[in-house]
Amino acid sequence: MKVIAITPLIAGIASATPFFFQPTVEPALLRRHITRSGLLKHVYKLQEFADADEKGNRGFGGTGHKKTVDYIVKWFKQWPQYYKVETQDFVHEYSAGSSELKVEGEVVDSKFFTYSPSGVLTEELVPAANLGCDASDFPAETTGKIALISRGTCEFGLKVALAGAAGAKGAIIYNNAAGELSGTLGAPSRPQGPYVPTTGISQEDGQSLLTDLQAGPVLATLNVDAVLENRTTTNVLATTRGGDQKNIVQLGGHTDSIVGAGINDDGSGVIAQLEVAKYLTKYKVNNAVRFSFWTAEEFGLVGSEYYIANLPKAEQDKIRLYLNFDMIASPNYMFGIYDGDGSGFNLTGPAGSDKIEYLFEKYYKSVGEKSVPTEFSGRSDYGPFLDVGIAAGGLFTGAEGIKTPEEAKMFGGKAGEWYDPNYHQKGDSFKNVNMKAFYVNTGAVAHSVATYAKSLKGFPKRDPSAPVKKRQTVEDELHALEHGHTKEVHSCGHKLPSL
User: Fold this and answer.
1) What is the pLDDT of residues 162-184, one digit of tens each?
2) Helix (H) or strand (E) segment spanning residue 90
3) Domains of the chain from N-terminus onward
4) Would residue 104 show up in a list of annotated catalytic residues for this protein?
5) Which residues lie in coiled coils (predicted)?
6) 146-150 and 219-240 strand pairing
7) Which of 297, 298, 357, 375 is the catalytic position?
């Protein structure tokens, strides 16, 4: 971990307590500093970084992401006596690309799948039986053809690997619900078989192709242009110099996007941290606060996983709790709180996770807002913290999940539509964030930071010897699906990849 050298500006003040003359932080005091105009200044900067990138996004390894990281570091360097800034560089495999699909000479809208190999081929289509989750789903005539596979039940990568093992030259996965389809194969390779060039299409187009196949052979041309390479990427961490360094209140969000500027996903969580960190410098903290900015979340919690994996056990034990803020300004928002006590989704967190949930419930009530629990499945950057027994919680305003009529009554907006219609699309830009949700939730971030930075009274102490509950995995979710459990998994990009 690289530490940026910082020289004190005021001689003679001990670095551990640089602002001993300041008032102790209070939730109401910290919250009052948050303004919509302050949030918007950062929104426009992140949009600028994406617009300047050759791919128009802030994906890890690209210029848009690097500018985001540099911006965060520069932001914290304004207060060298208050924060110690660390950058954590490492290498991870990067994948990006594009796909083009023509069927009988007609263009069909298609989307690239992360980790798909490149290839140009013209072959007949062969439909997979069932959902393509078993080798027997691919008939003998799949060899040398393009497999047409429905989304559902198992991971995209497994479908494609099995198609490759059956001899397919390419794969087309069509949605099992209305709308276009893009995604990830989940890993660079799989033992079940070789990946083949892959693209995703809508449910409507997939059903149309199945109808055409009933009338006879269908010829398709698939062109996938992919890049797969190792790239250096960076986590950023800023920790207060003041406060008890053995009782750290940590919070985080991710710095990368997939398509477009990613202003909601997760520019919103990044920006909330930046503004709260700015005004925290006006106060003394009793417990240390660590702001965290994770890279490559969209590739599978890469940054947070790397951080925890490389953090010594003795340092892990100093973290009393972790707060995650990923997508907190969705256009068709709900005010969702991670279900730390398990009352909504029967997935509890380590001791103290319930306390965090209750804190946010009380906050929303105090500002005249309702809230709902959202599943505590570990599919955002709090997951690695759960794995080592650290209490966690946070907020989420929704992604591709469907808003219910009851939620529309509670929060406004449109029932029957995605919480974020621009999720993982170019429309996730400065034009499409809900400023009310953004403002209210940044207030919640300030409230939680101030509460725990002031006191951890009543919050359970870490027990390093306590058994750690296994985080829910993809296999767990598959088992739940097979047994008829279909509750929506609210997370950022790490819902079961095939759903």
Assistant:
1) 999 999 999 999 999 888 888 88
2) strand 83-103
3) 15-82+241-482 (3.40.630.10), 95-229 (3.50.30.30)
4) no
5) none
6) unpaired
7) 297
